[in-house]
Amino acid sequence: MKQIYRSLLLLPLFFLGLISTSQASHFAGGDISYECVGQDSFIVTLNLFIDCAGAGAPGSVPLTFASTCGGTANATLVQIPGSGSGQEVSQLCASQIGNSSCSSPGPNALPGLRMYIYEALVVLSPPCNTWTMSWSSCCRNAATVNLTNANGMSQYIYAEMFSGVDSCNSSPYFTAPPIPYVCLNQVVNYNFGVVEPDGDSIVYFMSPAFENATTLTAYTAPYTFNQPLPGANTVLDQTNGQLTFTPTALGTYVVAIRIEEYDINTGVIKHTSIRDIQIVVQNCSNTVGTVGAGGIGNLTGNGTQLDSNTIEICVGDSFGFDIVFLDADTLDSLTLTHNIFAALDSTAVVTIINGNPATLHVEWTAGPFSPTFTAFVINAMDDACPVPGIVSAVFNVHIIPSTYAGYDEDICSDSQWV
């Protein structure tokens, strides 16, 4: 449960204050999520990624709430202490992190990035079927390659809540490292690491970036929102959010994705939101790591392997398997991170052996309230300096409900392998 730092009653028929936007080109990305803490009460979170070479982070940010019942209101989200807010998240090796623009500003500083987290407790009253919460600020990074006149554009991000479907739904949220630095002419596998706390279905889409609620950003030809990266080979897996591309030109590129959450039982939409980030393509002297041949290995337990990255399992049954990452640069060592505990639950057992190769072993038992589908992400970072290479791999878990059939016996229903 997140800590509560501020409460605010929103009255949709009244305007509670005008939005003020910062006039600075240091915002590099962001997203909005919310957690239900009681009927019509939500902790709303805005994550902002800020370039340390620009202006500092604001202590609070305004968030606009608009409902289909009419009217608009503002809430002030405050920067929360601790919990990672203000943490440097620069993709730099440990020995060079002190030379980033976050620690050592100047013309020779390495690129530096911080993540800031803003929250407020919001009571949506009176209830309404649809709420849109949004934030915007000017201006985007002038160095952006795929947008026209980016330094004159605002960045606009939003989340929509369809509370008429579920008045106490918690939204999906992102766990991926922000603003990846990727290697020219090398295959990139990047995953947004979305976790859905209620076990609903998530669908991923490439999205236009926005200047405001009704204005799309202008892309510089030949770039489009579907193909925002050089090489015209961007592919987004709509099921698990894996983004794959091979960049063919250096530069900074805006990439936006939209996620949609659907009720697992009825198929009715419950939420949609956007994550707007930058991806930086650079020259690399190293080769980024890869997943070992075959993906899932040494499978144990009751699960069935459907393909190289997918397991099917019944509620109450267990699985265990290994994932191996390799690096063609034999002197490099890989460090593994993951979102397994958030995507599965805290009962998962994870063992990591870093190195080259690097191995992650996971064991888990599907509980009675497990979602019918979930996916977790493992990231492997090499130790190249100053900018390490990262590869992400996603693994799908299909959970089949069980039907009680008498003492000490369950039948796994709807399974393709019973």
TL;DR of this structure?
With 418 residues, the chain is mainly β.
Class from secondary-structure proportions: mainly beta
User: Could you name the ranges where pLDDT drops below 50 across 5 or more consecutive residues?
Assistant: 1-24, 403-410, 414-418
Q: Report the biggest beta sheet as strand number plus sense, adding barrel if it closes.
A: 8 strands, antiparallel, barrel
- N-end to C-end Cα span: 38 Å
Number of helices: 1
Work out the radius of gyration.
Answer: 22 Å
- What would the average pLDDT be, to the nearest integer? 86
Note down, in words, how this protein is organized.
A hairpin with a 2-residue loop joins strand 2 and strand 3. The chain contains one helix and 30 strands. Helices cover 1% and strands 46% of the residues. The protein starts with 6 loop residues before the first strand and ends in a 6-residue tail after the last strand. With 418 residues, it is mainly β.
Summarize the SSE layout with pairings.
Layout: E1 7-10, E2 27-38, E3 41-51, E4 60-67, E5 72-79, E6 87-88, E7 113-124, E8 131-138, E9 154-161, E10 173-174, E11 181-183, E12 188-191, E13 194-195, E14 201-207, E15 235-236, E16 242-245, E17 251-262, E18 269-282, E19 290-291, E20 297-301, E21 304-307, E22 310-314, E23 318-326, E24 335-338, H1 340-343, E25 349-353, E26 358-365, E27 373-381, E28 390-400, E29 402-404, E30 410-412
Parallel strand pairs: 1-7, 11-18, 22-28
Antiparallel strand pairs: 2-3, 2-18, 3-7, 4-5, 4-8, 5-7, 6-7, 8-9, 9-18, 10-13, 12-16, 14-17, 15-16, 17-18, 19-23, 20-23, 21-22, 23-26, 24-27, 25-26, 27-28, 29-30
